[in-house]
Amino acid sequence: MNANPQTANLGKILVIDDEEAILITLKKILRTAGYEAQTAQTGREGLDLFGQGAWDVVIVDRKMPGMNGEEVAAEMKRLAPAVPIILITGFPGAVTRHDLFHAILGKPFRPPEFLQCLADARRRGSDDRGTASEALPEMSEPAPSGGGAFSLRNSAPEALSSWKILVAKPCLGSA
Hints:
The chain has helices spanning 20-33, 43-50, 69-79, 111-129, 157-162, and strands at 12-16, 36-40, 57-61, 85-89, 103-106, 148-151. By secondary structure, the chain is α/β, with parallel strands linked by helices. It has one domain (12-128, 143-162): Rossmann fold (3-Layer(aba) Sandwich), CATH 3.40.50.2300.
């Protein structure tokens, strides 16, 4: 996270979460790492911003009032199917539409996990928009407690049901 946002632009990232503290934190992490970041506090606001620009990756929270993250992602995939979407959630086991996401990042997570997940999704999204696309590697080990990233692309539903997604505790203040 030592990149200077004045000299580096690793990509344009849209972050959608109803918790202002999370938006502020993720925006700071992204900008420090050299990404351009914009935020939205509702699914509708996120969709409006999504329609106004070209995004390298979208990060969306699952549980939000109004449109939840899965509903937002479904609409985004209809509009621009190649844009990678990362779901962040304190409840990864409650996700029903795995096909919408390049990865799920369980809360709480550490900045290095977040940035690695983002870099992988961005790289894979570039592959999808190009001529060659390879599947993300399948996860063979359970996620570390305390959150972690999970690749879901090109996985059979029966494989998804056997994955162990562990979250030690939800973020403070999350429902």
